[in-house]
């Protein structure tokens, strides 16, 4: 027990040191990115938009462990918020939302804290790697090259990983809704390369050399497309071998630690617009708790259904954004009006993806609530009978 | 006739009201001083503590409020 505590302390301290050591470079980069007026005027429509997207994003992330950022950041930018402020304000809402979500799911017995910490530390290293890759691409091919790389990664990762998650969910549904450990994870768990790590709640033992790369990939993707969970959750399910319930709940711990370190870094350069953060939070703190609650009612594979569906629709959305960047690089010559139209379609599809995820969650959750055998009600009924 | 009593769990109405009022007070305090808050909270450096602390406080107060709202509405986790 004390050994575990020591390991957790070392992980936490290294996380903090890593964050402090990377702050100056991050700050320099952020200041370079920032241009123009930081603060937009708040209108009723802006507030409503942020609140509603906050709620839906919270609902989805409480359920699948991530989501919302892919709509919130471009959404804020479309309201006139500078890119860096949109990313920073979104991140400052993400970590408290993930904290509340992970606390709820911890209470439901779904979180593997040790796996979350290992994943978070490696993901933070992955973020730094991702920033380096971005800087290199930006240096070589400019902003358009960087945007094209982001969109291309988005489409590639979401179609391959999202497609597999969706296929797996469909397969489980067809075979009666019982989830087993992925065959790749089973094979990896048998390979004994020290140090081996045991994760109690996930109920598995696997080499650190297979666990850390999943965290690194999560961070790399978080730095590229801002939704690390789209690789973190499938990675924990298919490479490490955690159940979808444990993987999605543990991802919230990763999101909390990554979000906290990122928010401190953005805060140091004054990029957080606290007003936007608090409005989003007002919606998402309700949403995340409802999403977490939903996981206790639905069958486990519903997490995969929601995640796979969202990833595939978001991939389509990002596909529509690609011509803008290929035009800028001189690779294509699509008319400006068409590019603008495709950009708008891309955003609408992204909003649709989030809305669709929320509808699947709410429908399956309320359906399961209606069909459940209400233990409390049965108990009360029996008590009443006994009294009579 | 014997008195029949079935133990019914009390709903946390008082907690909802207190935490709800506290949440509204926090939001009103911040948004009525919008210009001061947005500028000061985004000064960078040591002022980073302000946005971080603010979201933590809001999370605890407003997050607990949201939790009790669900309890009052009868939306509670199913025991597996």
Q: Which key terms come to mind for this protein?
A:
heterodimer, A: 388 residues, mainly alpha, 13 helices, 2% strand, globular, B: 80 residues, 3 helices
Outline of this structure?
By secondary structure, chain A is mainly α.
How would you describe the overall organization of this protein?
The complex is a heterodimer of chains A (388) and B (80). By secondary structure, chain A is an all-alpha fold. Chain A has helices at 2-33, 44-64, 69-78, 83-107, 113-174, 183-190, 208-225, 229-240, 244-268, 274-294, 301-328, 336-371, 375-387; strands at 196-199, 204-207. In chain A, helix 2 runs antiparallel to helix 3, helix 2 (44-64) packs across helix 9 and helix 2 (44-64) runs parallel beside helix 10 (274-294). The termini of chain A are far apart. The model of chain A is unreliable at 27-35 and 374-388 (pLDDT under 50). Chain B is mainly α. Chain B has one domain (13-72). Chain B has helices at residues 13-32, 34-40, 49-72. The termini of chain B are far apart. The chains are: A mainly alpha (388), B mainly alpha (80). At the A-B interface, helix 4, helix 9, helix 10 and helix 13 of A face helix 1, helix 2 and helix 3 of B.
């Amino acid at each position: 027990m004390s050994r575990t505590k020591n390991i957790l302390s070392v992980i936490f301290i290294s996380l903090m040191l890593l964050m402090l050591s990377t702050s100056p470079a991050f700050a320099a980069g952020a200041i370079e990115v920032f241009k123009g007026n930081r603060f937009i005027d708040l209108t009723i429509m802006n507030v409503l938009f942020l609140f509603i997207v906050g709620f839906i994003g919270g609902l989805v992330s409480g359920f699948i462990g991530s989501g919302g950022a892919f709509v919130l950041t471009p959404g804020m930018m479309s309201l006139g918020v500078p890119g860096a402020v949109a990313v920073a304000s979104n991140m400052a809402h993400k970590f408290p939302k993930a904290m509340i979500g992970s606390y709820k799911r911890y209470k439901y017995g779904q979180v593997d804290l040790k796996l979350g910490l290992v994943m978070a530390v490696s993901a933070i290293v992955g973020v730094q790697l991702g920033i380096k890759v971005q800087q290199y691409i930006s240096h070589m091919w400019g902003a358009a090259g960087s945007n094209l790389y982001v969109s291309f990664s988005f489409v590639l990762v979401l179609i391959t990983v999202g497609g597999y998650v969706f296929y797996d969910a469909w397969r489980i549904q067809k075979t009666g809704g019982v989830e087993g450990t992925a065959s790749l994870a089973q094979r990896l768990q048998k390979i004994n390369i020290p140090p081996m790590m045991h994760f109690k709640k996930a109920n598995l033992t696997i080499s650190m050399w297979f666990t850390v790369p999943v965290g690194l990939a999560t961070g790399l993707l978080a730095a590229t497309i801002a939704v690390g969970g789209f690789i973190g959750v499938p990675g924990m399910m298919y490479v490490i071998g955690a159940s979808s319930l444990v993987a999605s709940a543990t991802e919230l711990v990763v999101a909390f630690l990554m979000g906290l370190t990122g928010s401190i870094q953005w805060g140091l350069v004054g990029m957080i617009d606290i007003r936007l953060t608090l409005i989003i939070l007002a919606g998402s703190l309700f949403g995340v708790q409802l999403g977490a609650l939903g996981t206790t009612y639905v069958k486990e594979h519903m997490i995969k259904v929601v995640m796979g569906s969202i990833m595939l629709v978001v991939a389509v959305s990002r596909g529509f954004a690609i011509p803008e960047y290929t035009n800028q690089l001189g690779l294509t010559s699509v008319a400006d009006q068409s590019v603008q139209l495709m950009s708008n379609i891309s955003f609408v599809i992204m909003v649709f993806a989030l809305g669709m995820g929320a509808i699947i969650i709410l429908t399956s959750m309320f359906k399961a609530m209606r069909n459940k055998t209400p233990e409390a009600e049965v108990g009360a009924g029996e008590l009443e009978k006994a009294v009579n | 006739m014997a008195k029949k009593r079935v133990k019914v769990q009390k709903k946390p109405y008082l907690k909802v009201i207190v935490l709800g009022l506290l949440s509204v007070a926090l939001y009103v305090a911040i948004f009525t001083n919008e210009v001061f808050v947005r500028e000061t909270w985004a000064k960078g450096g040591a002022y980073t503590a302000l946005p971080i602390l603010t979201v933590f406080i809001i999370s605890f107060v407003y997050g607990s409020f949201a939790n009790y709202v669900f309890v009052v509405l009868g939306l509670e986790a199913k025991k597996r």
